[in-house]
Structure formats: C-alpha cells, structure tokens
Amino acid sequence: MKIALLGYGKMGQTIERLAKDRGHEIVYTIKEKIKNYDLSKVDVAIDFSVPDAAFENITTCFEQNIPVISGTTGWLERYDEAVASCKENDGAFIYASNFSLGVNLFFELNKKLAEMMSSFPEYAIGIEEIHHTQKLDAPSGTAITLAEQIMENTDRKGWRLNRAEEGEIPIMAKRIENVPGTHVVSYKSPIDTLKIEHIAHSRDGFALGAIIAAEWIQNKKGVFSMKDVLF
Ligand SMILES: NC(=O)c1ccc[n+]([C@@H]2O[C@H](COP(=O)([O-])OP(=O)(O)OC[C@H]3O[C@@H](n4cnc5c(N)ncnc54)[C@H](O)[C@@H]3O)[C@@H](O)[C@H]2O)c1
Ligand SMILES: O=C(O)C1=N[C@H](C(=O)O)CCC1
After folding, report:
1. Is 158 helix (H, G, I), strand (E, B) or coil?
2. Domain residues for 111?
C-alpha cells in the first residue's frame, strides 16, 4: 500500500517503521494542514495528528476519495459530521480510540464485566488512565470508550474527569513521563475490589492495529470499527 501519514510524531514514526517492515511504502509524512497536498496516488491515509487538525484532515481525504484510518483522540464532538462526510463522498473510514489488539479484547471484557456487575450496586465503578506527559487530551479516548461501554451496560448516566458524582463514573487521569498507555477499570465494595487492567509496553500495538485496519479497508466503502477488523 502507498500510505500518507497525517501526523508524524510518536505514532506516525512508529507506524512508518512497522509499515515498512510489512512491505508498505510511506509516500507522505505530513505535519501540517493537508489542504495543499495532492493525495491522488495514495491508497490510504493514516491520521495520528492533533485534536484540532483531525476533522479537517479526515474530511479532506474523503473529498479526495482516499480511505482514512484515524486514531487521533480529542476531536470526537465532530465524529458524526465526519461520518456524514464519508457517506456523502462514498468513502471508507475507521476511527478507533485504541487500535491495539489487547485493548480491543479489553473492551469486550469490559462490556461483559459491566453487564455482570450491573446486578451488584454495592460496587463503586472507577476508571484510571495513565499516559505520558506530552498527551494533549484528558481523559484518554480509550478511557471515554470504556466509560461509554459501562454506561451502556449499567445504570450509570455519565462520566466525570478526576472526581466522582452520584450515578457517574469517575475517570482519574494521571500523566507520568514515558508511559505509553495504561487503563484500569475497578469495582470496589466494602468487602473487596475487582479490577481489569491493560498496560501497553510500547506504541507498537497501536501502530500495528492501525496498519492492519488500513490493509483491511482496501476496496471497501463505508464506516467501520476495529471490531469489524479484528473479530
Ligand atoms: N487510537 C490509538 O490507538 C492511539 C494510540 C496512540 C495515540 N493516539 C492519539 O494519536 C494522536 C497522536 O499521538 P502522538 O503520540 O503521535 O502525538 P505527537 O504529538 O507525537 O504527534 C502529533 C503530530 O501531529 C502533527 N501535526 C500538528 N498539526 C497537524 C496537522 N494540521 N496535520 C497533520 N499533522 C499535524 C505534529 O507536528 C506531530 O508531528 C493523539 O491524539 C493521541 O491521543 C491514538
Ligand atoms: O499516547 C496517547 O496519546 C494515546 N492515546 C490514545 C487514547 O487517548 O486513548 C490511546 C493510548 C495512547
């Protein structure tokens, strides 16, 4: 595949290394607005940029008929508009708050556990996420996905950053140098605590998942998720 990398920071560079190992060609490494680039020779754009740029990057690709894989977090208030743009342009799109196989397995466990725990209101639910200090958004996109999955399977009505309110899920966000990404979902009662945890040891899992998604979306049209790709 001929790949355009939209965003060439920590993730863009990791994707470049792993994509080359899999025989792909990186034709653009873009660190700025993409309006002026001719992407017509590109098979797929992989966007790991910044929250302010993601929506414009993604929709510009749809207008140029390029499939998009996006992992940028912190722009999701415009996700529905991006989906509409994909459909209008008969495009192809996958967004995931986390592309790693491990986290996508963790998502499935999280949903199942929340469904089981919904019968036991004595357990207080909490989410903790830990990331490196350069991260621009909080809470992480992954933590928001985990909270939304719990809300769909319990009576919890919302989530809140760094504090707990009645009926909501607190998401505690910590920033520690060099941590690629850790997520913990816990259920605490006066008697015991139950926890599930995912610890990324590097960015390779996120990058590999995004490349696998880019390979999978070739010759497809529509809006898909990592669940479609992996399971
Ligand atoms: N979904 C996942 O699996 C996953 C995994 C890791 C990171 N992320 C997300 O990916 C994004 C990037 O993470 P990172 O650690 O590589 O960040 P980073 O800060 O290292 O890199 C971001 C890059 O985007 C570039 N950029 C700035 N404006 C741009 C624009 N208009 N168009 C294109 N590029 C632009 C910056 O110059 C930089 O090179 C973040 O939102 C992060 O939360 C998602
Ligand atoms: O390093 C980051 O930034 C990460 N962002 C994603 C998120 O916000 O969930 C995935 C994990 C790494």
Report:
1. strand
2. 101-200
